[in-house]
Specification:
Length: 183
């Protein structure tokens, strides 16, 4: 699986695919040590510290490999899937060769100790990367529908949102991923 390369891009460095990837296919697996939120770097430098939240106050530290460099986008082409203990990125749209691989950091963020400015330049850029709970309902619904929101967020989300079930049948197909090809 040598189709991913690290390249300079508008966010410093990013991960790019040299081959087209079909929707639903695995793009990469995350590695690294599991740490508690009390072991995070302090101060946390979101641009340089590569920690992925994987549970309530649980994070996956940097692996030293290419998975550390996947950038955020508000219009991502992959999502994080927790699959029997393996944490991976899967394509949520078809990804042309040459594209930058991105995911929406907010899909894993719950009570996050940081937030970040965003300059991803997608047409739906939110300008701030915050906790999942702070996203607009339509975006939350889309990510839940795609199956890329982890259980530790879903459990709280459904516990607090009786309105969600009522509206489930009204979720509309969304095309906002279609602009996700990297410039
Ligand atoms: Zn953005």
């Amino acid at each position: 699986m040598n189709r991913l390369v690290l390249k300079d891009c508008k966010h410093g460095r990013g991960v790019f695919t040299t081959q087209a990837i079909n929707t639903g296919n695995e793009v990469l697996q995350f590695g690294g040590s599991i740490v508690g939120s009390d072991q995070l770097p302090n101060p946390y430098l979101a641009d340089n510290d590569y920690y992925l939240q994987i549970g309530d106050k649980i994070f996956l530290g940097p692996s030293g490999d290419i998975d550390d460099y996947v950038n955020h986008s508000c219009c991502p082409n992959t999502g994080v899937l927790f699959d029997s203990g393996v944490i991976k990125l899967v394509a949520v749209t078809s990804i042309p060769a040459g594209s930058e691989i991105t995911f929406d950091y907010s899909t894993t963020m719950d009570n996050s100790p940081w937030e970040m400015d965003c300059s991803c330049l997608s047409r739906n850029c939110r300008h701030k990367i915050k906790n999942f709970v702070e996203l607009e309902f339509e975006i939350q619904a889309r990510y839940i529908q795609l199956g890329i929101v982890p259980d530790y967020i879903l459990q709280k989300f459904f516990a607090n949102s009786s309105v969600i079930r009522k509206h489930t049948s009204k979720w509309m197909p969304c095309n906002f991923y279609r602009s996700s090809v990297a410039p």
